[in-house]
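Loading example: each entry is read as two labelled lines plus one structure line.
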Amino acid sequence: EAGVAQSPRYKIIEKRQSVAFWCNPISGHATLYWYQQILGQGPKLLIQFQNNGVVDDSQLPKDRFSAERLKGVDSTLKIQPAKLEDSAVYLCASSSDRGRWNEKLFFGSGTQLSVL
Amino acid sequence: TQLLEQSPQFLSIQEGENLTVYCNSSSVFSSLQWYRQEPGEGPVLLVTVVTGGEVKKLKRLTFQFGDARKDSSLHITAAQPGDTGLYLCAGDQAGTALIFGKGTTLSVSS
């Protein structure tokens, strides 16, 4: 079974530039998450999709971050304009069991973003 | 305020030693998960505990969920270099996405 695919693996940009990340979840997984992991910290949820609808985006900085999941499969996360504090690893995860008490998340390898 | 507090933050030990890492909260969780994350990779689920007082074993790893479902511990017996990584606990409050702690970075040297 193919895992969660993310690209690119690394991205270096200057502040105020824009950047986009892509995620392809495990086939058949209805739920998709984007997490931000700053060095030395645990993953922080940015946005959660159920199929192509947004379930939770309460922690997404909407003035600069946007995400979409067209057709309920792959997803893109965009930052425009980037700030220095956006430097982090952006993890995508998918799950088939949202709403259950023992939901299991499968993570991609992440995109490491450096903003200079 | 961090909902899940993990301790210690860093742990460096020799191969063969035993260790315990902790995950504490003032909130009750429906279940609690432990993940291990290696450099350059995403977290990988190790175990889910759901019942207060539950103990689960995974080879040399023993996981325990507190009776009140507010805390958990991970004990590793005879640590090996392959156990090196970031250990994350994540809590599930029904109806919300998983909440992660900051993790414990474990380094096991041979």
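The longest strand of chain A covers residues 88-95.
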